[in-house]
Amino acid sequence: MRHAKLLRSTPFRLALTFGLAFVVAFFLAGLITYQMLDRGLARQLDEAVNETYSVVASTYAQNDVEDLVAAVNTYARLRSVDHSIFSLENAAGNRLAGNFAAPALALGLTTREASALGLAGQGVYRIRVGIVGDNRLVVGQSFTETEQLADILLVSLGWAAGFIVLTAVLGGFFLAARAQSRLDAVAQTMIDVSNGRLETRIPLRGNGDDIDVVSARINDALGRLSGLVESMRQVSSDIAHELKTPLNRLRMTLEGAADRNDRGQPIGAHIADALSESDQINATFDALLRISQIEAGARKTRFRPVDLTDLLASIAEIYGGVAEDAGQTLQLSTPDDASVSVTGDRDLLIQMFVNLIENAITHSPKGTSISVSLALETGAAEVFVSDNGPGIPFTEREKVFQRLYRLEKSRTSQGSGLGLSLVRAIADLHSVELLLKDNNPGLGVHMIFPRH
Ligand SMILES: Nc1ncnc2c1ncn2[C@@H]1O[C@H](COP(=O)(O)OP(=O)(O)OP(=O)(O)O)[C@@H](O)[C@H]1O
Ligand SMILES: [Mg+2]
Questions:
Q1: Residue 427: exposure state from Cβ atoms within 10 A (0-12, 13-18, ≥19)
Q2: Alpha-helical runs (H) found in 81-209
């Protein structure tokens, strides 16, 4: 089972394919080497035959064949017929010396089989026939040595090819087994995660290889996913918890109204309270739905160029009055020379700035100065909304972005703790970097828009 899985694995198939490709390449290279060696050996044989012929022929002196006869006989004695053949005949066709009886052959270099030369055995000979004085000299050498060398080459090439295939198969198995065990770990992690163990991660080797890189990416994705699932869980329980109080209040108000009704007393005020309570509950649900909708990202299709200078001026005009009513001041500063524009959803951007300004107004006392400033820093639009109110302690600055989270001191004031969640969702949708800073005193919210 495990072996079958290994055989199907990508590394094993790759190793096998490369092994096969290598054998084909090796075979072609072997063929070329063999051809070249064969030709080289044939040339060498020709040279050897020519050389022996010349040495033997050079012993002939004018009108004296004796030395030639002696030389042929000496050579013929020294070599076996299997290796070298010699024959010397006079003009009348009588054999004077040698180790074989040469048949009629054309002058020059020829190749003949043993049988054609009247010799026993299967050998093939390279022969040089020439006339020395009046005599016919035949010198030949067998191809046996050449063939032996070529055979050695063929056998060693065969062994090498076998060795390569074996290495490829074993290497493939080894690589496949290694890769498989790591892929199994990835699969096991995914099974664990889908079974609800969200904290499980793929173990990393730390060597930065491709499987490690992919595993690290999957781990990142799992981290984000479990974060999301965790926050979904948190949000659901927070919503249930948070809405329990207003629903209980609504119930008590309605019970009070029913009591008074039984006693025949007027219930108008109770009904008005109940209506405002249900409006508040409705508003909370609306805000929650809006945040989910924005987080889903569908509104990106509505992105258009938005003139921030213009947009902030209109907001400041309206909220300047609201701040004044609360005994506070609101100031706007924008670059004089150029108008700053970004790409985004105009309504959502208004909502983001308004939420921040409303927070500054609601969560700060009388006499607070609120400032909104717009700047263009190296091509990126930046908006800074700040106040000199009580601010948000450092340890709470991440928590206030959670849905329904409110600081202890704000629990009694109007609001549902969704304003900053909405701000963050809108900022994320627009790829705006959102930073909460200490305004010493007060809160500073820094928004950095992406460069165009
Ligand atoms: N400018 C600020 N100064 C001081 N505290 C702030 C400021 N802005 C926000 N906060 C604190 O952060 C909490 C969360 O703010 P958020 O806007 O999410 O909710 P909210 O204002 O209480 O309610 P909502 O905005 O839904 O009406 C607030 O309850 C408040 O305690
Ligand atoms: Mg708010």
A1: buried
A2: 144-194
379: alpha, beta or left? (left if phi > 0; alpha if psi -120 to 50): left
**Residue 327 belongs to a domain:** yes
Closest CA to 329 of 355, 366, 359: 366
Domain that holds residue 100: 11-148
**CA 363 to centroid of ligand 1, rounded, Å:** 7
Counting atoms of ligand 1 from 1, which one is nearest the CA of 418? 26
The answer to whether residue 263 is domain-embedded is: yes
Domain boundary (254, 272, 296) is at 296
Q: To test the ligand 1 pocket, which listed residue (410, 436, 437) has its Cβ within 8 A of the most ligand atoms?
A: 410
Q: What is the spatial distance between Cα 418 and Cα 358, in angstroms, rounded to a whole number?
A: 12
At residue 329, the 3 state secondary structure works out as: strand
Tell me: do 57 and 78 sit in the same domain.
yes
pTM over 0.85: no
Whether residue 266 is found in the same domain as residue 398:
no
- The pLDDT tens digits for 91-124 are 888 999 999 888 888 899 999 999 888 888 888 9
Distance from Cα 406 to the centre of ligand 2, integer Å: 9
- Same domain flag for 270 and 380: no
